[in-house]
């Protein structure tokens, strides 16, 4: 599953109809805005398109994860323009701007997962769970509150 693909029928239930989806998703992203200016959100049949500008590829990545972890979203597409970014885009976003990959992977939460168990799996130390939490603060509000099907970033050591 790539950065842009999500489990459509799970996640944060923000909207009840397609007509209100774009506005609700936009408000959700703007509430914890990871660094997107002039954000526009389009929603059609489970597909979200994000537009705006940013100075950070991390912000784009986080906005995609925020939109994608909403119930009813199966795919999130970024048309966000990144200007004056000090770092190159992640591998998943290279088609949107070129450059070398940054060390990050994506993981879909499975039944029984905890951030501590994931830190042990990916870093060899369960005590590093805060590294995972910090990388995903926009989509994880508390270290003990993750859900099956949620997609998160796994920064590489």
UniProtKB/TrEMBL annotation:
<protein>
    <submittedName>
        <fullName>LysM domain-containing protein</fullName>
    </submittedName>
</protein>
<feature type="domain" description="BON">
    <location>
        <begin position="17"/>
        <end position="84"/>
    </location>
</feature>
<dbReference type="InterPro" id="IPR052196">
    <property type="entry name" value="Bact_Kbp"/>
</dbReference>
<dbReference type="Pfam" id="PF01476">
    <property type="entry name" value="LysM"/>
</dbReference>
<dbReference type="InterPro" id="IPR007055">
    <property type="entry name" value="BON_dom"/>
</dbReference>
<dbReference type="InterPro" id="IPR018392">
    <property type="entry name" value="LysM"/>
</dbReference>
<dbReference type="InterPro" id="IPR036779">
    <property type="entry name" value="LysM_dom_sf"/>
</dbReference>
<feature type="domain" description="LysM">
    <location>
        <begin position="105"/>
        <end position="154"/>
    </location>
</feature>
<dbReference type="Pfam" id="PF04972">
    <property type="entry name" value="BON"/>
</dbReference>
């Amino acid at each position: 599953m790539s950065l842009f693909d999500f489990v459509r029928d799970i996640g944060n239930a923000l909207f009840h109809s397609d007509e209100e989806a774009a506005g609700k998703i936009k408000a959700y992203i703007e509430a914890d805005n990871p660094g997107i200016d002039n954000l526009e959100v389009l929603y059609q049949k489970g597909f979200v398109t994000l537009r705006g500008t940013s100075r950070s590829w991390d912000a784009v990545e986080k906005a995609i994860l925020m939109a994608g972890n909403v119930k009813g979203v199966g795919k999130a597409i970024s048309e966000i323009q990144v200007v004056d970014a000090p770092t190159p885009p992640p591998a998943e976003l290279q088609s949107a701007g070129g450059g070398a990959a940054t060390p990050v992977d994506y993981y879909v939460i499975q039944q029984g997962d905890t951030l501590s168990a994931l830190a042990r799996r990916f870093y060899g130390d369960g005590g590093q769970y805060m590294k995972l939490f910090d990388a995903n603060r926009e989509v994880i509000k508390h270290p003990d509150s993750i859900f099956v099907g949620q997609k998160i970033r796994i920064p590489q050591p």
